[in-house]
Design goal:
Length: 435
Amino acid sequence: MRKIAKKSFKLPVSLIAILLGLTILTYPHNAEASSPGVPGNNPELVFPVISDTQISNDSDLEKFNNALNQLNELSPNQDAFVFLGDLTDNGYTEQYDNAMEVYEENRQDGTQSLFAIGNHEYYNDANALESQERFLEKTGMDSLYYHKVIKDYDFVVMGEEDEGYFSKQQINWLDEQLSKAEQRDSKKPIFVFMHWPIEDTTYGSEWHVEPNGELLYETLEKYPQVVFFSGHTHYPVSDPKSIYQKDFTSVNTGSVNYMWTENGYLQGHLPPGHDEVSNGLLVEVYNNRVIIKRRGFHSNDWLGDPWVIKTPAKTNKFKYTSDRDNKKPYFKKGSSVSINQDKTTSTELYAEFQQASDNILVHSYQVTAVNKMTGETAKEYTAFSEYYKDSVPEKLELPISGLKPGNEYEINIKAIDAFGNISDESLTTVGNTKK
């Protein structure tokens, strides 16, 4: 995924013909279980939602094929299949052909295919219009953005008109489609799909759509029954902030190809093993709820508890809000931190400790090293708990570098959960660098 910083976008050449929408694993330190088991009758509607395969080579195709195989085993009677953009890495003809060959080999008979265009479909020498025509030809979609009714449920797919650009015309069209869907049945959820997330919603939505983003939100907020799915960010769906409810429901779909995550942590935004993480969603719709199951294709397992959205939607009943969790993580009795003497150098210590526990998910740790002689903080950083791995390690060993030779340091470690709650207690030890 190529990230896009703030930039201006221009309306591309005339796109009227194309742009007319057609109305037709148990974690060792977390509480969430790996079982998706939610009791109930058979669903009225079933569909996977995946994104960001970014097909370029055989390895990408293998990940795509693996995801499709698992989804077929888990849901052999899919009513629809939704792909949220960045099917290819560059929008090249060969990449489309290879991707669609894998898809068609795995596509279930009778399943309606819904593909959205992503920013990577524009990363080639063609202009915007040519890139869109190629997308439509290769995926078989009739329009860049469109509205379908599948088993009496509304599916609205948005399509960026250039790299990250959604016009006012398209957003006004969206409003019309949402109004029609609400008039048909105001109690049912309306599923909206787009490659880009909306600002200040789900985990990773700092990489949001910018031009007309405010208008897009103002349009969606009128419809609390909307369940809005987006990709693009590659942020792992194992983080519970991948679902967010305020005026409507927003959902992050993760990435089939590889993981990306936020800056400012020891392991970096592409931590070790990021290219192995492969995520997606499976959605089941019942007459009074929508169940979204998170899948780790890399581990062939479910990730955490399913998300359950009750219908008809009422904003005062939303459970996946920004203030949904205020419970602090904690270290179990007897937990401790120790210094690995074998790795100690004149400027570096290694701290090893048992991971903390939380009612949902331990996200990271705050690590501080204080010089015992001067009282000054010599090192301070945050490090991921590696919650995105399979399986999450029970212990972590973190380096503390940039220290002075022959000095004594007090090491302090606090746990932080996915919602920013910090443990009251901390693990503390003392280590000495070599002279």
